[in-house]
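Slide 14.
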Amino acid sequence: MPRRYAEIYPSSPLLNSYEMTHVSAAALMEVRYFQAEADTMPEEIFAEHHVLLNLQETPHRVQNRRDGEMRDFTFHKNEIVVTPAGMRSGWRWFAKSDVIVVTLDPQRVEKFAQTELAMLLDPQQFADLPQFTDPDLCAAGVMLRDALENDDLTSGVMFEAMSRVLLVKLLERYGQKRPEDLALSASFTSDHYGRVLSFIRANLDRTITVDDLAREAGMSPSHFGRMFKETVGETPMQYVLAYRVEQAIDIMKDSARALGSIALDCGFADQAHFSRSFKQITGQTPRQFRAATTQ
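Slide 15: predicted structure.
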């Protein structure tokens, strides 16, 4: 059974986002910072993607076994290794490390890519990228690390912002998009999805129908409904409802905003409709959710 990456670290991290309060970015990723003496990690199959960002100034020898193939290489500053979920991987390093390890839940990454970037990811999500150099991505990682040093509201806001910056950079540069080599008339592509999502965003406070979305995609309603569910995993109206609730959750972070106003801005008929729909998606009413997140 796949394990979580944190379960087999040979040493404790100096900084760990799991211990932070005031942030919701833990739903997207966990970030840990290590300076560990030479050691090994056994081969395991992990349920998460893990991204290793090297900050060590001095190049050093590292071994990384990936699905039975051994790589023995010199690790340079600003080099990164992405190991997709489901790949058997193990490590050995021969000098003190200075690394940031980012772990990502595949389902949450897929949802983030869809709702934030209008990107439809391949089921694998990330290519097998044994080693590459990306100073920008490492710089974003350093900002995340710095935000971990103080567990206060300001650092939480910084961590929240930079976690999204890092994930956007990672997905836009290295995310595996779904192949679009089928005829457009028989498939639902990222372009279709992007047009549909843009329409939902622009009309969030209004009634949205399947006919509206199908027209944006340039398909008949019946064909659009079938292709959307096959590609995204839920019906168009289920998706719209979930998107309305997601946007409401984001707006609810402003404690001064009244729930009735949020309901109308997110396209619910009234506060009662908002409350029923919110509980259907989250298991809590908006009042219960807000109370729990502001304690």
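Speaker note: The two ends are 36 Å apart (CA to CA).
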